[in-house]
Amino acid sequence: MKRVLFCLLPLVLIACQPSGRTYTYQGAVPYTPVVQTLPTVAVGQVPKNIILMIGDGMGLSQVSAAWVANRGALNLLTCPYVGLSRTYCANALITDSGAGGTALACGQKTNYGSVGCDTMGAALPSLFTYARQAGKRTAMSVVCRLCDATPADFCCHCNDRSNYDSINACYPSCGVDYIAGGGAAFLTRRKDGRNIISEMAQVGYHVYRDADSLMAATDFPVFACLADSEYVPAPMRGDLFSRQTMKAVAMMNNQPFLMMVEGSCIDDWSHANNLERTIEETLDFDRTVGEVLAWAAQDGQTLVVITADHETAGLTLLDGDYQTGRVLAKFASDSHSNIHVPVYAFGPGAERFTGVMENAELSLRLRQLL
């Protein structure tokens, strides 16, 4: 009898598993044109410009689901160099965007929930700091509120990612040339009565509150806060993310620069176990990747590195059809996981981003190229 029960147990467990969710992208096929084969770049070259692109929560499964939904094509998969990044933080196996983003921004692992500071709470210089020291302009383009963990990791310092007032107070002195994101409510509705948007203008930033005004911008520094809270979900926000990103590139006017670009909301919808939104946010990020890669291929002097701060929700692909774009998948949790995340690279110096590396090591390799 025990043997019979033992044999039946796997069948019972399978029957009890959730059936997963099915999604088929109904928009344009594919969602965005994919760049053609990228040109070969000689090994050993040093880039003039660096663009670091972070898909928040974007693990290999999110990439794979988006690839299926997009009928077997993604821009980021055209990169010739591929690696893997380990994402654990200083005091936990499972990281968050505070610690994960700090490792990418500052080249050092830190405690869960910390933003731009070490395990003792001391401020860490970010890649932006080193870029300015090297005479490069700096830029940041995200689709979340600017006090969210990843953008804050590059511009701010706080040992508690939920202390939005403290984080936002860092922006007037951050020195970044181009900042575009959301979260105006967090900048103006503060307990201390300060209006950080007004303070940005007072220290010399050209402040923009809508996309049309931003697209007409001509001078640095730029502070564009284009949403009261988070941005509306993809694809309803249209091509705003790619437009605000490529506006920064255009404004550089052939001056050397470092830019961080974050597809912020892949993480949010993975937390919510919403497969449709997770895939659409990944595709929106990939559309921006395509714009960046096409420009970098023409420029010939720009390194593009694409990665994630961590994977979210343990997404698993169960079935699907890349010819029709149908994806069947399920989430293992509503939290982060320790699954390695991909690293894709193109351009001069891209050969340095292969193999398995710590997230902080990825940042150190970027710093060397600055």
Structure report:
By secondary structure, the protein is of the alpha/beta class. It is built from 13 helices and 15 strands. Helices cover 34% and strands 21% of the residues. β6 (206-208), α9 and β7 form a beta-alpha-beta unit. α3 packs parallel to α5 (149-155), α10 (240-251) runs parallel beside α12 and α11 packs antiparallel against α12.
Poorly predicted sequence stretches spanning 5 or more consecutive residues: 1-18
**Strand pairing plus helix content: what structural class?**
alpha/beta
**Strand numbers in spatial order across the main sheet:** 6-7-5-4-8-2-9-14-3-15
Mean pLDDT: 93
Helix content: 25-40%
Percentage of residues in DSSP E strands: 15-25%
Please tell me how large the radius of gyration is.
21 Å
Task: List how many beta strands DSSP finds.
Answer: 15
- Count of helical stretches: 13
Biggest sheet statistics = 10 strands, mixed
Q: Based on CA inertia axes, which overall geometry fits?
A: globular
Order of helices and strands: HEEHEHHEHHEHHEHEHEHHEEEEEEEH
End-to-end separation in angstroms reads 68 Å
